[in-house]
TrEMBL record:
This is Fe2OG dioxygenase domain-containing protein. SUPFAM superfamilies: Clavaminate synthase-like (SSF51197). Residues 625-744 form the Fe2OG dioxygenase domain. Residues 1-53, 101-177, 423-462, 674-700 are annotated as: Disordered. One of its GO terms (biological process) is demethylation. One of its GO terms (molecular function) is demethylase activity. It holds the Pfam family 2OG-FeII_Oxy_2. Belongs to the alkB family. It comes from Volvox carteri f. nagariensis. Coiled coil: none annotated. It comes from the Eukaryota.
Amino acid sequence: MSSKQARGRQGLPTGQQQLSFGGEGPAPKRPKLSELGNGGLQRQHHGHEDRQPQSNALLHRDATGSSFTACPVCGKHVPLLCINLHLDLGCAQVPTPTAVTAAAPGERRSRAPARPVQQGTEPQSQRRAEGKQALPGANGAAADDDAEDDAVATTGPEHPRSSPRWELSPEQQQLAPLHSRRLAVEAREQGLLAGAEDTPEPKFPLLGLRQQMAVAAAAISAGSGAGAQRYGGGHAILAYSPASGDGRGLGAGGGTTAAAPSSCCNRDDTGVRCVLEPRTRFSLQGALPRGLPTAAPPCLPGTVFASSYSAQTLLEPQLHRHRTHLAKPHELQDATPAAARQPAPPLRLFVDATAVRGSPCCTCLKDTAMSTALAAAASTAVDRGRDPAPAGPSPPAAVLEVPVEMPPVEALWQVPHSAGFKPSSDSYHLSNSDHGGDSSSGGGASASCRHGLNEHGLDPGPVAGNIPLHPMFLPRGAVASRRVCTTWGPKPACRQEGAEEEEEAARAAVPEVIAEAAAVAGEMRAEVSHPALEGQYLVLEFVTPAEEAELLAMCDDPVLKPSWSPWIGQMYGNATAQKTRGKRWGVLPDYHRRGVAPVEHPLPPLLRILTERMRVQVGLLRCFQPNEANAIDYWRSRGSWLRPHVDDRILSGDLIVNLSLGGAAVMTFARERDKDEGGHPGLQQHQQQQQHPRQSAGDEVRVRLAPRSLQILSRAARYSYTHAIAASDLLDARRVSITFRRSELRPFERAER
Ligand SMILES: O=C(O)CCC(=O)C(=O)O
Ligand SMILES: [Fe+2]
């Protein structure tokens, strides 16, 4: 390292201080790119001559003559032309400009290929032309700045200078619009950073909670107006936790940014941007890998949308929209370190003034008065955010207590369906992938995660170690362009107009999506609609091994929880599953009286999570609301087997879903020829289930059910084939299945008629 470079590094803290602004008064102007270098600093700090030599040392060149500077925030050495982009990315990346070494035809041909850099030896016009080629159309601060060129020329070591022509990579071009918004935001940030200017460390991490929230509000605010278009008129929510207030909420990807999908509101000109105060950023990292997206409507109070992005990243929706994760409040709360857990307070919304405009929209802002109140509160929040943070954890005054209590966990499951919320097609994205390498994603396959909820519906805590994720939950790397994901997700208003077509489209999309997701991991994860068994779908690794263990433990739990049935030999020897134990939850179908008895043991939270996951992640199941589930405990040593049967065609709905746990088995499907067409088969079903179905060899389809897989039986597979598992087809010592159904609430009297 040259002595100048060394000086440059040493000089960083000073340079950093120089870039700090005072806290009071109007938001100061962000330093121009050039001001990071010699000329700019001279201008900015004229009268402070003693700093000038150090500021000179902030710039150096590499062997190709490219100029670098130390980032004033993180200290990394960044190509000068990319410093804004680097800042825009929240210091997460050090972008590299693409050097086009070959000059364009006729351009600069006469120039000597290498010569020492000397101040002033290059004609001004030529330097200007070079500067203009930098960051075309995107980074005016770099492109237009003569002073920057001066700085480069005077401060770099004397390397031969080629004739580089800088161009933005496609990714950089995509990010370029960030720059303008970044400018707007940064001024406010800098104002808020006044208290931290004496410290040499990066500043964002030093912000207190209150400041973080204010920064967030400012950032959000800056996204309105012209930027709102880029938000697609959508929502942005930042979540910070007072409990976790260790100051790492912002910067370098450390923040929890919750982003609601852009399509909550149907109107482009309406936006609500909120800072939800009482949640923790860790929530996200806990929730994301777990792959438990939820279906709560974006604007419904009590709903939190989480994504592991910093405020900077949030500013560019293109970056985060595919990472949108929907999390329920209890997920977020549960992710808070146990010591910090508190009873859930009412949600507090900080909303910036400019965000609420236009007409109230959909479920979130039907009430105009509410909009106004939110806007007023937001305005105060933003203003107060500029004040120095008070000592202690006192909450900001500009808190609007939204008069909605957090729904109890039980109620949460009802939310999407009772609220009549109909998300548009963009609302739910399962993927997080188009920038899969992002350091802040928390969504990588090895990110730490949590598992299962306890009997209170709460997460019992982190799982030791990392749990590999199924790519279907968090597909990485290849999903960005996949609009097919938009067909996944809940459609609570199932039977609305056009629902059938949509369902059909969703069905059509499922194979593609699953196969694509599978391809990401290089494994065939799912076969959808078995080629020889129409209507049979298989989703592999629907639950993680940890979840599988928890489900098995739940089934085996000897302690009778109020909502769990015990393992009993109820099916032993006289019903469908032979030499097995079973348990069941939900309504109790009575196949003899052809009716359904009321719920005895409601579906435990763990199973409700799975049904929710089914709805969100499997398009075919997006309307599936099972009200019963039964588990069967197969043991090889006991000679357990499953008789050929068709699940009751009248009592049970169109979809039967089997989850396999613990071990694999081969299920044999056999076509019931006379069930293919005509007549209502239901009344004879029970009889015919007892008979050996007529079949030929060609009518038999065997399907391996892997542990953790989810099998969906619909259409022909559901109605025209029996399914069975021979004792010899139990491939492991033990297999437990949980079958989910929707049984019609059919009064016995009617059934008996
Ligand atoms: O064990 C299975 O996967 C299937 C169980 C089943 O068919 C049933 O419970 O009706
Ligand atoms: Fe069955």
